[in-house]
Amino acid sequence: MRVETKLFLFMVPFFIVVGTVYGFMVHWQEPVGFLGIWLVAALAAMIGLYLWYTGRRVGFRPEDRTDGEIHEGAGEQGFFSPWSWWPVTLALACAAAMLGMAVGWWIVFIGVFLAVIGLVGWVFEYSRGDHAH
Question: Once rounded to an integer, what is the mean pLDDT over residues 108-123?
Answer without folding.
Answer: 93
